[in-house]
């Protein structure tokens, strides 16, 4: 089993069917993948949706779908905060605090961070394993598995506790 934690950019790509959608969808469909979302992603997702979706009930339905029914939600705890601090200090690029905390959630839960944000590229690989979504085209699940294998992603033994089907 490989564990992945979706950054807000990955969730939005999937929700809006933007570039990277197929890669995220392949993770949801992969029986050997565990897909997580950190609590900070829920806050960012609501804020991103608010720009184009004024109906609070609609936004809540989307946030609820991703934050519990589609993926398991994990907390941003002390371990995640300490990992976030270490990554901000080691990053070659400016790393916003909320994104550092999301990356910290990935580290705390032994997950690969799935994203499409260039500022994560400044974090050294020894601090964070990442899977950057394709900006063009729609890779297959085999492409995702190949990238994970080539990046030396470790395998977690975390069991799935929620259904990932909406």
Can you put this structure into words, describing what you see?
Strands 3-2-1-4-5 form a 5-stranded parallel beta sheet, with helices on both faces. The protein is an alpha/beta fold and 166 residues long. It has helices at residues 8-16, 21-29, 39-50, 56-66, 78-90, 97-108, 141-150; strands at 2-6, 33-38, 72-74, 112-115, 130-132. It has a single domain, classed as 5'-nuclease (Rossmann fold), CATH 3.40.50.1010.
Give the strand line-up of the largest sheet.
3-2-1-4-5
Number of helices: 7
| Beta-strand percentage range | 5-15%
**Which blocks of ≥5 consecutive residues have pLDDT under 50?**
137-148, 150-166
**CATH class type:** Alpha Beta
- Structural class from helices and strands? alpha/beta
Count of β-strands: 5
CATH architecture, by name, is 3-Layer(aba) Sandwich
Q: CATH superfamily, called what?
A: 5'-nuclease
Whole-number mean pLDDT? 85
Rg, please? 15 Å
Helix amount: 40-55%
> SSE string, helix = H, strand = E?
EHHEHHEHHEEH
Main sheet? 5 strands, parallel
What is the first-to-last residue Cα distance? 21 Å
Overall, the morphology is globular
CATH topology: Rossmann fold
Number of domains: 1
